[in-house]
Amino acid sequence: MNSRTEGWSRLDSLIAEDGEEGVLALVTTRIAIGENPQDIALSMGMPWIVMRKWMEDKPERMQAWELAKRCFADGLAYEGLKAVKDADPETVQVAKLQFDAYTKTAGKVSREEWGEKVQVEINQTISVLDALEEARMRVIGASAVARMTDATDSPDSPVTIQQESVEI
Question: Are residues 3 and 52 in the same domain?
Answer without folding.
Answer: yes
